[in-house]
Amino acid sequence: MQYFTFFFCVSAALLQTQNISPTHEVNIKNQTTDTVEVIQQVLHILFSTPVPYLSPGPYLVEYPYEYQFVINEPQKCEQEKPFVVLMVQVAPSNRAHRDVIRRTWGSENLVLDKVVKLFFLLGMQTGEDTQQVHEQLLQESKEHRDLIQSDFVDCYKNLTIKTMVMLEWLNLYCSTASYAMKIDSDTFLNVHNLVKMLLDAPKTNYMTGLVAYEAAVLRDPESKWYVPEDILPQSIYPPYTLGLGYILSLDLTEKLIEASRHIKALYIEDVYLGLCLHHLGIPPTDPPGYLYFSVFPVPYSPCEFSKVVVTTIESFIDRVWLWKNFKSQPKHC
Ligand SMILES: *[C@@H]1O[C@H](CO)[C@@H](O)[C@H](O)[C@H]1NC(C)=O
Ligand SMILES: *[C@@H]1O[C@H](CO)[C@@H](O)[C@H](O)[C@H]1NC(C)=O
User: Fold this and answer.
1) DSSP SS3 for 212
2) Which one-letter DSSP state was computed for residue 294?
3) Which residue has its alpha carbon closest to ligand 1 atom 11?
4) Distance from Cα 34 to the centre of ligand 1, integer Å
5) Nearest ligand, CA of residue 58?
6) For 275-324, how does the pLDDT look when each residue is reduced to its tens digit (9 = 90+)?
7) Cβ partners under 8 Å of residue 215, min gap 6
8) Rounded to two decimals, what is the model's pTM?
9) Where are the beta strands (DSSP E) in 84-224?
10) Is 18 near ligand 1, meaning CB less than 6 Å away?
11) Which residue stretches, if any, does this entry annotate as coiled coil (predicted)?
12) What is the pLDDT of residues 123-133, one digit of tens each?
């Protein structure tokens, strides 16, 4: 019965595909051979013809998908056993940002006796300088051993892919760490405050950052974060932590990846994690201090910066100078 149904379907498919007129099939004389041939042909069509590419459209991204790591640090976590891993999302060609971070807060690798480990997460550079950027990255990786690169196209619209690949990487290569923090590259991170906060934080089902509550789904097609109703019918997002910097306990990586199999991959990465978290029934946690995460640049003063965990920084400020100044003043307030 099953065979028959299969044969019927595939014959129909074959007739359609090859435009064979049904009368042709009626003239079959040597039934056994013909049947075998038809099945072989159909199997060939089914399994060797590539599935035509279907774009997910402008509001969803290509995920889940088995992206591969092109540059990797598979042993680093096992060797160094970090308490918290900092995952900085940055464009492949943006070496300047990476160097600033390496010279500033990224250099703090032992804080309150806890190992802090920094990685940069990149996708693939496209365009004319692809090959050149690739070679520079290999060199940079040799020097610093802190690059993770995956083979999706790195662009703003693909940030959700970047974040999901980050979770996959953490799950595969760094699951012994207690916490991971995703952080944007144009920020100031007070690593001491981060570690101090995490020493008292829940160990599981924990995600914190600047939590957005009751954020409206933007329906104006002109908006940067427009989402049409057929993609997401609800008008309010579940609570989510803003993308400038959020922290999660490592047990959540696997759970969020699992949840992502049930939620269409929306292009807005922080909102998407909120949707996955909501699917798990886990609410994000507010940080213990309301000034800890600032999406608007906190004007620099050693006192103010001693109170934050993370803040964005205005682009005109020399961040290396700022860091040196901050570190040289032990009594901040
Ligand atoms: C069917 O055709 C094959 C090869 O063309 C032949 O070897 C086989 O004997 C034929 N079978 C019958 C039942 O005629
Ligand atoms: C996002 O990445 C996927 C996978 O590499 C790629 O096919 C797609 O074109 C990228 N999106 C954009 C807008 O470039």
Assistant:
1) strand
2) E
3) 30
4) 9
5) 2
6) 999 999 999 999 999 899 999 999 999 999 999 999 999 999 999 999 99
7) 236, 237, 240, 271
8) 0.81
9) 84-89, 110-111, 114-124, 147-153, 179-184, 187-189, 207-212
10) no
11) none
12) 999 998 999 99
